[in-house]
Amino acid sequence: MAKVYDQDSARKFLASQLTNHDRADLDLLDRFDRWGSDLISALGQVYGLDTVLDPLLAVLLEHHSTRHAKLRNRDRARVLQPDWFQRAETIGYVCYLDLFSTNLKGLSKRIPYLQDLGISYLHLMPILDSRPGENDGGYAVANYRALRSDLGTMDDLRTTALQLHDAGISLTLDLVLNHVAMEHEWAKKAKSGDQKYRDYFYVYPDREIPDRFEATLPEVFPDFAPGNFTWDSDLNGWVWTTFNSYQWDVNWSNPEVFCEYASIIGNLANHGVDCLRLDAIAFIWKRLGTNSQSQPEVHSLTQALRAFCRILAPSLIFKAEAIVGPAEVGAYLGEGEHAGKVSDLAYHNSLMVQIWSSLASQDSRLLEVALGRFQGLPSTTAWGTYLRCHDDIGWAIDDSDASKIGVSGHGHRMFLADYYTGRFPGSEARGVDFQVDASSGERRTSGSAASLAGIEAALESGDPARIQRAVDRLLCGYAMVFGFGGIPLLYMGDEIGLFNDHSFLDSAEKAADNRWIHRPAMDWQMAEDAAAGRLGHSIAGQIFMRIRQLASARRRLESLHASLNTRVRSATEQGVAIFERNHPAGHLIQVYNLANAERWVGTHELGHLHGRVVDELTQMSFELNDGLTLAPYEVRWLRRG
Ligand code: GLC
């Protein structure tokens, strides 16, 4: 193959190889003209172009030649409508496939259920082949080119993706790119002494370098996986294992690793995947003397992968799973030279934490300060907003934010962990501690949304008023997730308020990791009854109907398009949060009472909204004079009538 080291020669090389001269070939060249410079400049920041460009172009051509005509049509449609994922009608659902529908065939039968809920984006939690036994919920991938055998085959994946597309649903899968299972073929070859594959990992003969790194590295799972390195006798060395000892970190400073992942991405794209969730993306670059998270190279690598996809399969987008501090997360949607060139979506961890925090403290001042930071994100990106996911909640309260409202960050984090495990007097939450930080005593929390919101405890009390309050509390939180802008991600089972599930304690593989407490199997009897309206005003019936109402209100409101940031307005009364969407398509003011008592909000706080107004949630119109009284946990989405 000819040697290509810059954009011009790469372009000429591609043109010489694309001999069909059909529309698909011409489109690819057009896209290379548009995005090639992003690819080449980012690669050049990390690798020598002479080492990476030749093999990468080979990967590009291989996957281009096998891309299905239907997916090429999808590419064209999305080039014409690049904001498809930012639109108000994009509503997400996240589930473990086995817990939701047993396998991919079962999923086909559940598509109508998802459509009825208004879902147009589906994230199936890890389905690629993982190591047997303990596998971190599938995040220890043993083979990127096969599915877990009980879930289906790669052909089933292709079929399912097309079925979802026909149903108006985009498919998201995880791309675990910080580590592989120690059973992955690369790790096996490294163990057998193959130097090429040993260089795919970080392996050290003794503790000298690991100890120097450890001096500044945090621990992700201090309770059940302490330390960041694991001795492996076959390797005769210490291998980097940020997460569990069976998850080996791959070495992204090796250009061959980059090309391997480009090929894995090409293969998933060609199976119809629409979005890749870049798992633990913050960790992929290591630097001595730092915490080895969010290093500048992470963003160059993401830009290179993103540009590669824009050229090969522009219908595919990236979602960054960067659970990092509020000051760092913006970089994952692109800052400075990477603005608009990295991930399209990123989780809004801060919003999630602030919702739970405000509900616990019945005070929204911290939320106002913390969310005030997030201005000026690239207009082509969107948040993934959520209340719960499959992971624990880390109480990511920024110390300087806390001090602005006169509280201690540490004190508030301790309060939240106490509150959500029910230790705090008066709390009805039923979470459990997940990992304790030995030096600070701070803890993270596991638990399902309904159990954290207090529904489980209220139900046991048998007090209807308490039950109703807890249901309203949960829905107030979910209303913020749906109203903020960005893709709201409904976590499986939350639509019927599933409680904590303690059955994981019976499984040897799961018992040590209590994140399984909030990964219950879907209760289909309840879900089907709820969807058919057979549950009336019961807990599940009410939650389901109100979530569906949130989804349909959202779909009507163009002003929730993610290209525009939500402004958080100041409220006078403690516990009231006001979100403003000042969009040309319509002005929307959302009011949330996060307190367990009545609150008043005046029209001056509502951007002088007064006179005839419509509440988009109920579609009722009414006269707004001086202001309005909000019942505990009441939500209003208001526009001029
Ligand atoms: C991500 C996943 C989490 C997993 C970790 C390691 O944070 O969400 O479940 O344990 O990555 O892969």
Describe the structure concisely.
The protein is 39% helix and 18% strand.
- Unreliable spans are none
Number of strands: 25
Share in helix? 25-40%
| Head-to-tail CA distance between termini | 66 Å
Radius of gyration, CA atoms, in whole angstroms: 25 Å
Q: Would you tell me the structural class of the helices and strands?
A: alpha/beta
Biggest sheet details? 8 strands, parallel, barrel
Could you walk me through the main structural features you see in this protein, from its secondary elements to its overall organization?
The chain is globular. Helix content is 39%, strand content 18%. The chain has 641 residues and is α/β, with parallel strands linked by helices. The chain has 22 helices and 25 strands. The mean pLDDT is 96. Helix 2 packs antiparallel against helix 12, helix 3 packs parallel to helix 11 and helix 20 runs parallel beside helix 22. An eight-stranded parallel barrel has the order 1-2-5-11-12-13-14-17, surrounded by four helices. Strands 18-19-20-25-22-23 form a six-stranded antiparallel β-sheet. A three-stranded antiparallel β-sheet has the order 7-9-8, with helices on one face. The site of alpha-D-glucopyranose (GLC) has 10 residues, from loops.
Topology:
Elements: H1 7-17, H2 23-46, H3 49-65, H4 69-80, E1 92-95, H5 97-101, H6 104-117, E2 121-124, E3 128-130, E4 141-147, H7 154-166, E5 170-176, E6 179-181, H8 185-191, H9 195-198, E7 203-204, H10 208-214, E8 229-232, E9 237-240, E10 247-249, H11 255-270, E11 275-279, H12 296-312, E12 317-320, H13 326-329, E13 345-347, H14 349-361, H15 365-372, E14 382-386, H16 399-404, H17 409-420, E15 432-436, E16 443-446, H18 449-452, H19 455-461, H20 464-483, E17 487-491, H21 524-531, H22 539-556, E18 567-569, E19 576-583, E20 586-593, E21 599-602, E22 611-615, E23 620-624, E24 627-630, E25 635-640
Parallel strand pairs: 1-2, 1-17, 2-5, 5-11, 11-12, 12-13, 13-14, 14-17
Antiparallel strand pairs: 3-4, 6-10, 7-9, 8-9, 15-16, 18-19, 19-20, 20-25, 21-24, 22-23, 22-25
The chain binds alpha-D-glucopyranose.
Residues 136-137, 139, 176, 243, 279-280, 321, 390-391 line the site of alpha-D-glucopyranose.
